[in-house]
């Protein structure tokens, strides 16, 4: 049974369109649903470390940003999320054609959300779990804008 695809809210669109670093990396929003976000990144030479594996910083960025988008699906219209802490376990060297990330909100709250991200490396007909992250995000009130 497949999950229904949710429309992309203005906040989720903002998270991806107004984050220059994410755009520079090439992170793509693949799927969004309440409490869930999936992204991907086609691996290029610039994403690799000195031994040819996806850099830990690339994996951490993918895990963190995808977690933020998953959490943002559950906040109110005048709220946003901001990472306050994360821990990542790099389980094996990441290599292949692309990285995929799936983030799921484990515990939503009025002020703090806890999200788990899994990063997978796809290549040579295989998909391997390469990293898991736990991301804690603060839920913050958006300040009224001065016009």
Description of the molecule:
Helix 1 (10-17) packs antiparallel against helix 3. This protein is α+β, with helices and mostly antiparallel strands. The protein has helices spanning 10-17, 20-25, 56-72; strands at residues 28-33, 36-42, 79-90, 98-107, 112-123, 126-141. A hairpin with a 2-residue loop joins strand 5 and strand 6. A six-stranded antiparallel β-sheet has the order 1-2-4-5-6-3, with helices on one face. The termini are far apart. The protein is built from three helices and six strands, in the order ααββαββββ. The chain has a single domain, classed as Hotdog Thioesterase (Thiol Ester Dehydrase, Chain A).
What is the secondary structure topology, with strand pairs?
Blueprint: H1 10-17, H2 20-25, E1 28-33, E2 36-42, H3 56-72, E3 79-90, E4 98-107, E5 112-123, E6 126-141
Antiparallel strand pairs: 1-2, 2-4, 3-6, 4-5, 5-6
Helix pairs in contact: 1-3
């Amino acid at each position: 049974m497949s999950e229904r695809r949710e429309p992309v809210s203005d906040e989720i669109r903002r998270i991806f369109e107004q984050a220059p670093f994410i755009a520079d990396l090439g992170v793509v929003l693949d799927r969004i649903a309440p409490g869930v976000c999936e992204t991907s990144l086609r691996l290029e030479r610039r994403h690799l470390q000195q031994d040819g594996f996806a850099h830990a910083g690339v994996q951490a960025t993918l895990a963190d940003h995808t977690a933020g988008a998953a959490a943002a699906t559950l906040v109110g219209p005048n709220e946003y999320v901001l990472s306050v802490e994360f821990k990542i376990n790099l389980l094996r060297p990441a290599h292949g054609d692309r990285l995929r990330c799936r983030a799921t909100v484990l515990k939503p709250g009025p002020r703090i959300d806890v999200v788990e991200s899994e990063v997978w490396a796809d290549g040579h007909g295989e998909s391997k779990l390469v990293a898991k992250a736990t991301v804690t995000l603060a839920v913050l009130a958006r300040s009224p804008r001065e016009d």
